[in-house]
Specification:
- There is one protein chain.
- The protein is α/β, with parallel strands linked by helices.
- The chain has two domains: 117 residues, Nucleoside Triphosphate Pyrophosphohydrolase; 177 residues, Aldolase class I (TIM Barrel).
- 28% of the residues lie in helices and 26% in strands.
- It has nine helices and 17 strands.
- Strand 15, helix 8 and strand 16 form a beta-alpha-beta unit.
- Helix 3 packs parallel to helix 4.
- The longest helix has 17 residues.
- It is globular, with a radius of gyration of 20 Å.
- The N and C termini lie far apart (46 Å).
- The structure holds 8-OXO-2'-deoxyguanosine-5'-triphosphate and magnesium ion.
- Keywords: DNA damage, DNA repair, DNA replication, Hydrolase, Magnesium, Metal-binding, Mutator protein.
- This is 8-oxo-dGTP diphosphatase.
- It catalyses: 8-oxo-dGTP + H2O = 8-oxo-dGMP + diphosphate + H(+); 8-oxo-GTP + H2O = 8-oxo-GMP + diphosphate + H(+).
Length: 315
C-alpha cells in the first residue's frame, strides 16, 4: 500500500447545446498548475461525492447543479499523491458558469480536447467523452453466400445509430480480410468506427479504426499493438485481466458476463454489483457485456460504466 496522500476528487463534466465541454485552467502555483482541467476539487471529510461536486462547482463556477450521472471513476498515482477522480456528468444546472476564482475558462468541442494539455489522470475522461454508449459486436458469418444477409444486418445496425462496431467472425484469413474491408466501407459511410477482433495486423492493413484484444492476448503482448491514434480495446472478466489491460494501456474494455448468456453458458455471471465494483477500479471506460440490450444502458451508466455491448438486439 502506498504511503502517498490520497484525495477523492469530484470532477464535473458540463456540456453546452453543441456538446462542447467546459474546461478551466489550473492556477500555476497549484498541483498540475497551468494544465487545463474539468472543474471540481477535493471531497471533504463527511461529504458525499455529489455534495463535494455541488460545493466545488458553486465555489469555482457560481452554478447550482441539478441532475447528474456518473461518467467514470479513475484511480491514478502521481509522484506526489494518489487521486481517485469521481467524474460526474452534470446534465442540468442553474446559473451562468463563470470563472469565479478568475481562472481562464472555455467551452471546448470534444474533438479538440488535447490529452497533453490536461493532467495525466485525465486521458480516460477524454476517451469516455469520445466513446458512444453502445458497442455492437457482429454475429459470426459463414460462407460467402451468407455475406449479403450479414452485411444487410450490419447496415441496419448502423442505420439505427451504432457508431462503434467490433468485427468478430471466425473465417479463414483471406475471407476475413475481404469481409472486413466490406464491413469497414459500410461503417465509414455511416460515420461509424470498426475494430477488428484479435487481429491488429489486419486492422492496420485495411485501415480499420482499432483492434479488440481477447483476454488471453493481454498476457502475450508487451505493448499496445497499434499507435495511440487507433483504438485498442480488450475483453476482461476479472480484476487480474483489468490490471493487465491497464498495464498495456488499452483505451477501453468490455467486462463480462454481467448476466448469463447462451454463448458462454458455463461462465459465472458477475451481476450488476460485480460490474460496478470492477468498473470503479478500472482506469479506463468499460462496457457491460453478457445478456445486455440497449435498455440496460441506464444501469451500466449509473454504475459508472461507459455503456453496454452486445451482439443481438442492437439493430
Ligand atoms: N478538479 C480537477 N482536479 C483534477 C483533474 N485531474 C486531476 O488529475 N486532478 C487532480 C489535481 C489535484 O491533485 C486534485 C484536485 O484538487 P484541486 O486542486 O482541484 O482541489 P480543490 O479545488 O479542492 O482545491 P484546493 O482547495 O485543494 O486548492 O485532482 C481535473 O480534471 N479536475
Ligand atoms: Mg479545484
Amino acid at each position: 500500500m502506498s504511503s502517498l496522500p490520497h484525495w477523492l476528487v469530484a470532477v464535473g463534466v458540463l456540456q453546452d447545446k453543441t456538446g462542447a465541454v467546459l474546461i478551466t485552467q489550473r492556477d500555476l502555483k497549484r498541483h498540475q498548475g497551468g494544465r487545463w482541467e474539468f472543474p471540481g476539487g477535493k471531497v471533504e471529510p463527511g461529504e458525499s461525492v455529489l455534495d463535494g461536486l455541488a460545493r466545488e462547482l458553486n465555489e469555482e463556477l457560481g452554478i447550482t447543479i441539478g441532475q447528474t450521472q456518473p461518467l467514470i471513476r479513475i484511480p491514478f498515482e502521481y509522484p506526489e499523491c494518489r487521486v481517485t477522480l469521481a467524474v460526474i456528468r452534470v446534465q442540468e444546472w442553474q446559473g451562468q458558469a463563470h470563472g469565479r476564482e478568475n481562472q481562464p475558462l472555455r467551452w471546448c468541442p470534444i474533438s479538440e480536447l488535447d490529452v497533453q494539455a490536461f493532467p495525466a489522470a485525465n486521458s480516460p475522461i477524454i476517451t469516455a467523452l469520445k466513446l458512444p454508449p453502445f458497442y455492437v459486436i457482429t454475429p459470426d458469418c459463414g460462407s460467402r453466400a451468407e455475406w449479403p444477409a450479414w452485411l444487410e444486418r450490419l447496415e441496419r445496425v448502423l442505420a439505427n445509430g451504432a457508431k462503434l462496431i467490433q468485427l468478430r467472425v471466425s473465417l479463414p484469413p483471406s475471407e476475413q480480410a475481404a469481409l472486413a474491408r466490406l464491413a469497414l466501407e459500410c461503417c465509414h459511410r455511416a460515420n461509424a468506427e470498426l475494430l477488428i477482433n484479435r487481429n491488429a495486423e489486419l486492422a492496420e492493413q485495411i485501415g480499420a479504426d482499432g483492434v479488440h484484444l481477447s483476454a488471453a492476448q493481454l498476457n502475450t503482448l508487451s505493448q499496445r499493438p497499434l499507435p495511440d491514434a487507433a483504438w485498442v480495446a480488450a475483453s476482461c472478466h476479472n480484476t487480474d485481466e483489468l490490471a493487465a489491460a491497464a498495464k498495456l494501456g488499452v483505451d477501453f474494455g468490455v467486462l463480462s458476463p454481467v448476466r448469463p448468456t447462451s454463448s458462454h453458458p458455463h461462465a459465472q455471471p458477475i451481476g450488476w454489483a460485480g460490474f460496478g465494483r470492477l468498473a470503479a477500479k478500472a482506469p479506463f471506460p468499460l462496457y457491460a457485456l453478457g445478456g445486455m440490450s440497449p435498455n440496460d444502458l441506464a444501469s451500466a451508466r449509473q454504475l459508472g460504466g461507459q455503456g453496454v455491448a452486445g451482439i443481438s438486439g442492437f439493430g
